[in-house]
Q: What sequence folds into this?
């Protein structure tokens, strides 16, 4: 499990693509301080397992499902990536619950500065927009952010200068694709309502009436 608080920006040292699989090596420093084989590392929000490592690099294997469901296919040697180690037991929980399992790829449709913030409007795959609410949580390229608006199949997020500087989102532009992870609690609620909620007398209207959604 992760929190969406990015620890450092690393870079892709090498990437070997084999049809819909990849062997990826990253260069980093902070996340390698206590790395072990088999550790989970989030790369742009994607949970991957360390297969080998050195003092300055870590390598991973990317399976077809990850290749198809993320923006990894757009990465290349030299690409900058968000990095976060899995949350240690007893660690400070600064973001929100992030699993590292990407739900889909969104596209930045606008980027608008306002005072000290920059607003990003992100177009989502059609089947994901229902999971987001105003002031809810979203992970974009692994970064924990707050949803400030939901309209149709788009969400609005706002980045402060610190986030712009310390994550790869600061260099993203209109048209760029980003990995999206929906709020896990929202997904569970939606699943409950659709699969068993109405049979037990719990409906979406009931949850809204009682302040749950």
A:
């Amino acid at each position: 499990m992760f929190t969406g608080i990015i620890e450092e920006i690393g870079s892709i040292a090498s990437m070997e693509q084999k049809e819909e699989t990849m062997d990826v090596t990253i260069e980093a420093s902070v996340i390698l301080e206590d790395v072990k084989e088999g550790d989970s590392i989030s790369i742009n929000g994607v949970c991957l397992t360390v297969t080998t490592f050195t003092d300055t690099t870590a390598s991973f294997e990317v399976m077809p499902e990850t290749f198809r469901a993320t923006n990894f296919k757009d990465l290349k040697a030299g690409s900058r990536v968000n990095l976060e180690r899995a949350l240690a037991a007893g660690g400070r929980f600064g973001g929100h619950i992030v699993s590292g399992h990407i739900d889909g790829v969104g596209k930045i449709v606008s980027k608008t500065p306002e005072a000290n913030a920059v607003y990003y409007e992100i177009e989502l795959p059609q089947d994901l927009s229902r999971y987001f609410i105003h002031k809810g949580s979203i992970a974009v390229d692994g970064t924990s952010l707050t949803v400030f608006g939901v309209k149709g199949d788009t969400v609005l997020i706002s980045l402060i200068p610190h986030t712009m500087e310390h994550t790869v989102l600061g260099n993203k532009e209109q048209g760029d694709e980003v990995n999206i992870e929906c709020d896990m609690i929202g997904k569970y609620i939606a699943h409950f309502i659709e699969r068993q909620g109405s049979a037990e007398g719990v409906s979406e209207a009931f949850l809204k009436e009682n302040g749950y959604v």
About this structure: The chain has two domains: 8-85, 104-198.
